[in-house]
Amino acid sequence: MVAAYLNDFENKTGFITSVSIERAYQGRGLARRLLQQCIDAAKDHSILQLKLEVNSSNLPAIKLYRDFGFESERAEGDIIKMIKKI
Asked: Other CB atoms closer than 10 Å to residue 61's CB: what's the count?
């Protein structure tokens, strides 16, 4: 599951709130496919950037997001705020 808000049309910004794959289905590329679909949907809605937050200890998720072009915007405690220009 990927949950995202793609409704900030004034700032043309979307926010991904969750990327979750049930443990039994992890490692099959599902997160990559769903994240790409989310990016495509953002483009369809004229969103110019996507943001998300990830725990700094979640290294697999951070790698996934970096593979998709997300960059660290800033850190707040254990949370890394990331952004991707579309």
From this structure: 16
pLDDT at residue 53 in the model: 98
pLDDT in tens, 32-81: 999 999 999 999 999 999 999 999 999 999 999 999 999 999 999 999 99
Contacts of residue 48, defined as CB under 8 A and 6 or more positions apart, other chains included, come to: 12, 13, 85, 86
Do residues 72 and 38 touch, judged by C-beta distance below 8 A? no
Beta bridge partners of 50: 14, 84
What's the start-to-end Cα distance of the chain, in Å? 21
Please give the radius of gyration of the chain, using alpha carbons only, rounded to the nearest integer.
13
